[in-house]
Design a protein that fits this description.
alpha+beta, 91 residues
Length: 91
């Protein structure tokens, strides 16, 4: 699982924020085949919290995909990362 809190600079409406958040979720779902949702801070104008989950038969593969997903957010989305946590578990 990955959880990212980020600040969205220069946003003046909830509609503009939602477009950026939707874009991030769509990229995570399309590129990395993971589930993604805005999990908190929905009413905040300048902050968003997105969670993503991935199921894999390999812990190493899953963690690699989550790291790549974080790198995509960091490099391709015009946001300031405030916090990130990546958690994986093996059963």
């Amino acid at each position: 699982m990955i959880q990212v809190i980020f600040q969205i600079p220069d946003v003046d409406s909830i509609k503009a924020k939602r477009q950026i958040v939707r874009s991030v979720k769509d990229k995570l779902q399309r590129r990395f085949h993971m589930s993604a949702a805005e999990v908190d801070l929905q009413d905040s104008l300048s902050f968003a919290q997105i969670g993503g989950a991935l199921v894999s038969n390999s812990k190493v593969f899953g963690e690699t995909v989550l790291q790549k997903a974080f790198a995509m957010i960091e490099n391709e989305v015009p946001v300031r990362i405030q916090d990130v946590s990546i958690y994986s578990e093996e059963f």
